[in-house]
Each structure stands twice: as C-alpha cells, then as structure tokens.
Structure prediction request, 105 residues.
Amino acid sequence: MSHFAKIDSNNIVTEVIVTEQDFINSGVVGDSFLWVQTSYNANFRKNFATIGSTWDATRNAFIPPKPYPSWILNETTCQWEAPVAKSNTEHVWNETDQQWEAGEY
Prediction:
C-alpha cells in the first residue's frame, strides 16, 4: 500500500489516501485530478503531502502551507524557515515582532 495525494488544478493537495498503485492507474478513483505518490517518511518528494500543501512538479516536492508571511522557503528541504534562527530556549514565533519568544506550543 502507498500514499497518494489528490492535486487540484491549482496544484493544492485536497486529499491523501492509502491505496495500491494499480488502483490509481486504473482510473477507478473516477475523476480527472492528478494523483501523486507521497512518502509518509519523506523518503522522496521532500515532505509528506498534507491537505493544503502545494505540489511543485518542478521541484518534485510537496511544500507545506506557509505558516507566516515573513518565512522563507528553504529550496533544499522545501520547508518554511523563520527569518531569524531559533535558539534552544525560544519556542513560539511572533510574526508582529519577527522574533522567537519563550512560551508554550
């Protein structure tokens, strides 16, 4: 069994299912959406696809939703990173002040 992400016309993941490759190939899913295999362990395509993620065919990667407007995409990992490095004692991103703050998750 494998995980597959359903991609809409805007390259947004709308569904993730567990099924056999033959099921996807057979057209049994009954729609014209693109289905792209994703790895639960992120062994390929950079990140596991989740609803709301973007499929980037050029990067061959799933990119999670951007958590804050100021965050920057790491081109290697396709993960969003804060513009300020996180220290070991700071836990919560403050978008207004653009800094990490001590606090609970």
Notes: The two ends are 34 Å apart (CA to CA). The mean pLDDT is 89. Residues 21-25 form the longest helix (5 residues).
